[in-house]
Amino acid sequence: MVQESNPDINDSIDAVIAWVDGSDRSLMEKRGFFLGINKPNRQWATQPTRFTSVNEIKYCLLTIFHFAPFIRNVFIITDGQKPDLFDDIKKFFPERLSSIRIVDHKELYSGFEEYLPTFSSRSIETMLWRIKDLSDCFVYFNDDVFLIRNVRPEDWFTGDRPVLRGKWAPIPLHKISWQYFQLLLKNVWHKLPPFFSRPSFHTGQWNSAFLLGARLKYFTYSHTPHALNKKVIEDFFIQKTDLLKKNISYRFRHPSQFTLVSISNHLQLQLGNKNVVKPDTIFFQPFGRSSNYIDRKIHQCEDNREIKSVCVQSLDLCSPGQQTKLFDWLDKVLRVNRNTNSEGGKEKREIPME
């Protein structure tokens, strides 16, 4: 049944950001304890870069406030942590301090505490719709996603229907086939070491599509801000509690997990949502690349006025010089001036807000 659109919904769009500081000692100890119990894929699901932060979230939040000022509230999902960003927000957007709320995993998992702690982003994402006071229309960001141009509410929502950024693609048969081949080989030859398939970006999306009836193709998305309707997701999981419990039961990312965004997208398509557009983002993966890789990506962003966001993955693995180059560019995008303060040589930033 096609839902009616509410033209006033754009007055209350929230943002949700998932964040973790994996270098926090208490979190490292907790993760290490459960690694010993679960023994997941140490080559992928537990790589330190999946948890390490170089405070990218500060730029994620600054760019939201600068380029999407209509965002009502920002909810930052953490596991008993607090990101180091409030001084910058107080300096540049003091009026927005009250619109930021730290949401602990315990709030998301109220009534499901037996599944905590969790270190799987897919498990955590499954519970985003349970944030208290979250708007029916919200945009989900990973902390390494940054806006670089002005965004309008209609870029993310038409009435209460999310704008779906992606395309239809055939089943990722090569990834699925390789996964099942390795599992079959392990079952035949028991002397093989434990096998853990890589829980890839696209297999997680395909798992979601398959659960909702897809067999030959699925709607695939990229690393971008994701527009979601809470009510549609909530209605689905209230009826599929066993499915929800299964997905959040994994403490570390697992190949059989589905992704919340893909579930949402396919539900929207089944409800008749025709707001499908191409992605407006560019993906950066600078670690191990050539010396001019970041420069080339920046030029792509500057040359294409349709690009409104970027995702920069595994920046923690890059050299200090690469990190500085990327953050300097984001400063420029934000029109931030780096000056040396006469008092103690501290860095001072000013964002012209005219």
Q: Keywords, please?
A:
single chain; 354 residues; alpha/beta; five-stranded mixed sheet; three-stranded mixed sheet; 13 helices; 16 strands; 17% strand; globular; disordered N terminus
List the helices and strands and how they pair.
Layout: E1 13-18, H1 25-38, H2 56-67, E2 74-78, H3 86-92, E3 100-104, H4 105-108, H5 121-126, E4 137-142, E5 145-147, H6 153-156, E6 157-158, E7 161-162, E8 164-165, E9 167-170, H7 173-188, H8 201-211, E10 217-220, E11 226-229, H9 230-239, H10 241-248, H11 260-270, E12 276-277, E13 281-284, H12 293-303, E14 309-312, H13 320-333, E15 337-340, E16 347-350
Parallel strand pairs: 1-2, 1-4, 2-3, 8-12, 13-14
Antiparallel strand pairs: 4-11, 5-14, 6-7, 9-10, 15-16
Helix pairs in contact: 8-11
The topology string of helices and strands comes to EHHEHEHHEEHEEEEHHEEHHHEEHEHEE
Low confidence ranges: 1-7, 338-354
Mean pLDDT, all residues: 86
Biggest sheet features: 5 strands, mixed
**Outline, from the CA principal axes?**
globular
Helicity, as a percent range: 25-40%
Main sheet: strand order: 3-2-1-4-11
Count the DSSP helices: 13
Share in β-strands: 15-25%
Q: First CA to last CA: what distance?
A: 45 Å
Decide which structural class fits the backbone: alpha/beta
What's the β-strand tally? 16
User: What radius of gyration results from the CA coordinates?
Assistant: 21 Å
